[in-house]
Amino acid sequence: MAEEVRAAAASHTSLAGRLRNYFLTGLVVAGPLFITVYLTWSFITWVDNWVRPFIPPTYRPETYLPWPIPGTGLVIAIVALTLLGFLAANLVGRTLVELGEGILNRMPIVRPVYKTMKQIFETLFSKSGSSFRKVALVEFPAPGMWSIVFISQPPAQPIAERLPETDNVSVFLPCTPNPTTGFFFFVPRNKLIELDIGVETGMTLIMSAGMVQPGADAASQKKLAEMAAMARAAQLSKRKEPVG
Hints:
alpha+beta, single chain, 5 strands, 5-stranded antiparallel β-sheet
């Protein structure tokens, strides 16, 4: 009788373990996929809602179809930006851009905002830009505590002349889990420990609060494969069990 009770308990535990493995495997597979699709769909919807008011109703697909076509606004925005870049690259376009910038530079409040945004976009999307090319460690906020920072461009000459050290760099220390906020400061280069990881890997490390470490992608794929193999083995063993 005792052996039958232990066998029933083991069978119940094994069934619960298999169900747990099935659930975790499904969660690992569906979770990232769902979040990716959701964020992509939200971005497409946001662009469509922003572009649609500028499109005359005659040229909207939903005017002739019983349902709207998602992504139409995104396609139109990409085509419009490409056409704008093409026009700005020739002589007439450059003249118009310079004329518009001249008007904006005469506006006291708009001028600093526009110049700052233009410099940021030119730095981010410039092929030769050097912003956020390296990841490093800095001793912050206290001795013995290290934080991840992204190395930016060296300080300009008026600032470099005022700094006590001769070789300084600009660094940005993002906050967790929102990397759009953080601290910007100048630090001597010899106070930094450069890391052999990419900016994307460093950003993932910060956003996950250390839960996703460098090289963890391969480990997670291996763990997922092991969980799937365990689930398949449990299912095969269950099929081979004699009935009755």
